[in-house]
Amino acid sequence: MDPVPRLGSGIPLVARAEEMRRLSAAFEGAELGEANAVLLSGDAGVGKTRLLTELGIRAGAAGALVLTGRSLDVREGGLPYLPFAEALAPLATSEDPVVAEAVRARPALGRLLPQGEPMPGGGLPEHMAVTTATEQDPSRRRRTEQDLGQLQLFDAVLGVLAEVGERRPVVLVVEDLHWADGATRNLLSFLVSRLRAQRLLVVGSYREEDVHRRHPLRALLGELVRLPTVTTVDLRPFQSADAKAFIEALVDGPLDADVLARVVERSEGNPFFAEELIASCVTCEDIPAGLAELLLSRLERLPVETRRVLRAISVASEPVSHTALADVSGLGEFELDEALREAVQHHVVVVEKGCYLFRHALLQEAVYGDLLPGERIRMHAAYAARFQAMPPGRGHAAKFAYHSLESKDFTAALPALLAAADEAEKLGAPGTALRHLEQALEIWQAVPAETRPAEADELKLLGEASHFAGTSGEPERAVAYARSATQALTPEIEPERAAKVWRRLAEALLALETGLDESVEAIGKAWELVEHAGPSPARAWVLATRANILRITRRRDEALWSARTAVEDARATGARGGEALALIMLGLLAENSGNVEEARDKLREAERKARAAGSLSVELKALYYLALSYDDHGEIPQAIEGYQAGVRRAEEASLNWSEFGLEVRARHLALRYISGDWPTKAGAGQPGRGVSGAVAARMAASWVQIVVGRGQVETAERLISNLRAQWRNDTLIALAAGAAATELAFWHGDHAAAVAYAKEAIGWLEQLGSSLLGGIRIAALGLAAAVEQAAAARLRGDGTTVATAVAAGEAFLAHARACAEHGRPRTGTLGPEGKAWMSRAEAEARSLGGTGDPAYWAGVVEAFGYGAIYEQAIVRWRRAKVLLAAGGAENTALAERELVAAHEVADRIGAASLRDAVREVARRARLSLPGVDASVLTPRDVLDPLTGRERAVLEQVALGRTNRQVGEELYISEKTVSVHVSRVLSKLKVSNRAEAVAVAYERGLLTKPASV
Hints:
Layout: H1 17-31, E1 36-42, H2 48-61, E2 65-70, H3 82-92, H4 97-104, H5 138-143, H6 150-165, E3 170-175, H7 182-193, E4 200-207, H8 216-224, E5 230-235, H9 240-250, H10 257-267, H11 271-281, H12 291-299, H13 304-316, E6 320-321, H14 322-329, H15 333-345, E7 349-352, E8 355-358, H16 361-369, H17 373-389, H18 396-406, H19 410-426, H20 430-443, H21 458-471, H22 475-487, H23 495-509, H24 516-530, H25 537-552, H26 556-573, H27 576-592, H28 596-613, H29 616-632, H30 636-652, H31 659-675, H32 693-709, H33 713-724, H34 731-747, H35 751-767, H36 774-796, H37 799-822, H38 832-845, H39 854-863, H40 869-886, H41 889-909, H42 912-925, H43 948-958, H44 963-970, H45 974-988, H46 993-1002
Parallel strand pairs: 1-4, 1-5, 2-3, 3-4
Antiparallel strand pairs: 6-8, 7-8
Coiled coil: 589-616
Protein name: Helix-turn-helix transcriptional regulator
InterPro entries: AAA_16 (IPR041664), P-loop_NTPase (IPR027417), Sig_transdc_resp-reg_C-effctor (IPR016032), TPR-like_helical_dom_sf (IPR011990), TPR_rpt (IPR019734), Tscrpt_reg_LuxR_C (IPR000792), WH-like_DNA-bd_sf (IPR036388)
């Protein structure tokens, strides 16, 4: 028996036992129906693929189906879903009837699974073909967008893996995630986030050194590692002893000690470096100074024809077929065979699925980097010519564009980039489409005007780039491209087209809170261009957008005229999308006047017409505002249902992070918080991928409330800190972050800090000149903190702090009243949420003087009964404290009922902060809570750090007795009393006896009424 455990490739498993154990444990969990995922990271060459190969061998031996796919480095021309297409390809040809039926039952998989033999040249299956930009009708492409949504495809992939897993465990391996395109990252995120009881293990590997701070994968990793089903395995370089053992095991015969020491030193613990160094050592005397030199010097030992074909493989940047190499390398069949045989035998190239690729990516990079400029251009041109001659196929446009760009054939690259962008859009990958358009814009001026695609010009590309930036969650870039489009306008541009450009800028600016003034200016220029023209689709769209901006700026009569005129123009010219947008504006204006049912009818009509017109962004806007109508009126179930419909539609249309795709998600998450339906998945709804900081912050602002409620202090502090940078960009972010900071400090008893955070948030809003209704909530939270701060100060006899806290509370109350009076509710009147928070602010203010009003608090509880389950539980807890302070058997009984109700909610939804606060009040009042162990509600060491003797001493101190009097009462010496008092001060972290008594009484550590 081999004494050294080995990987499937025969390479010894030195120093990898722990990593292999963790991967095996993950697979064993999947076998038992505990689906999970592993993220395997490490530097290039550290052994990730070898470890995964061994996992595949072991899993296969245990009866599992192992599916493996790899991302490719195609130089910014990312192919959507490529690794999944490769991994799932065996399912299409499986002879297992269960697998075949599972595939047939999911037609959406047809976009990934091959229907025939792979195309030569490493291309994708022919069934994935799409037409080029010059052959396809753009309007037809737009109409088919809704049929290519991500959600159906994602569900199909998860469904087939789960169904196959019912028969045998499935291991899905996705390698080289650092090269993955955005669509692949989205699908991976979807799968991993939905791992439950499937017999499925998902493993993803990536190069840690390639995932830099702004790399799009980093955000996804940050999201995934928080999931309970995800574990991480970091493959580190070998330590010196392990590297020596590894190298010794690699060599068949004895190795010179000096050579061994030098290889260990030079390899720096990287197995690939060590292996390549050893290979070089045994074939030449000199050891190269660096890795690239070493790799190239090793290749120099190979025949000329072999090196020639290796250069051709390096340019392909993907697995390449024998036929493709024959075309590109210029070698005859015999010479090519011999050259490839040499490369395979020397372990430079490996064969996978009939195609050739370098054994290690670093080797390919070294060879590619060593190419002379001329030969690099010639080989890229040869590959480009090959793809140009092929029948259209999925991914061909992107590959052809890449090779044309690298060969400096910009004339050929330009239409290919447009076709690739078109294909990416149809596949639901707007970020990929944006990158293709950006490359097209970069080379636009380098292409002679007479050879540019007839159906496109720079103005169109800028407009589409703005659109794709907006739909992929990058509103700032959307504005930048829209601005560039306005700068590209010339006097020769017809007025309607110029108006469309200015309207696009106005619309893009509305996604940024700081863009309103510029948006007003932009729509004004658009209107000037079409104001005196006859009805047209462009004029209808301008009028509808103008109505929206006038509505926002409170010019209601002008907005109403613009919206009605837009409807007339749209109906006269058949612009159904523009009509739908105008109907939304009419609905919003109706609701602002209090005509709720009329408003909802308009919004439903707008949603129907936008869907029929294929105006996806307008459709989403209608769905959002319809849900918001129910939201504003406190009809929570209907609002949640409406937001869910918007989320589903955004996913179907691949508009997840467009302006209103974001809004429906953010508000849906906020309502889940309010209604007590808290997500179990950490970071639910977070984009975590390829979106701007403002978009990510918008979602984090909704999520941070749940994090605070759950008592996850470190996560909450990090989120609050990160959100601070976005306060200026979005008032809603400032409101959410300010409220979260106030609540977090409040729950942890730092009431002074909570008051300070509330003041800061309100000060920020006042600087902006804002009297947003959200300010009522901030003021109410600040008032609660001021009440607690004043109460604690009274116990300490600290009159100065009492006065300060009361003054702060009065200022908070004044701010809340000002917001309620001068705020501008969208519906025209203060809704249930605003009224409830105003009611709480008034109730808290009544406690500033030291005693609250139990009867008034009953009204607050009722006010939050519109569906705000969590907030109502909080005010029940607040009311219980006021009732207990008032005293009396009846009040105590009422308090107990409120605490029981609050505890049930807190315990059910996982609101740890509220749950602990309720239990603390119950413990002090010696009340019971159903389902809670009595020991939880009695003094414990964790809650009560004092010993029995220390507590007895403190009780005497609380009665105002000196150390001598305490000693006489307890029959101990004065010196012993002094020691006990010192220990009490230390444990309670206070500086004097009065503070100790106040803190102890506040925390319920004293059992007798204190009289100081």
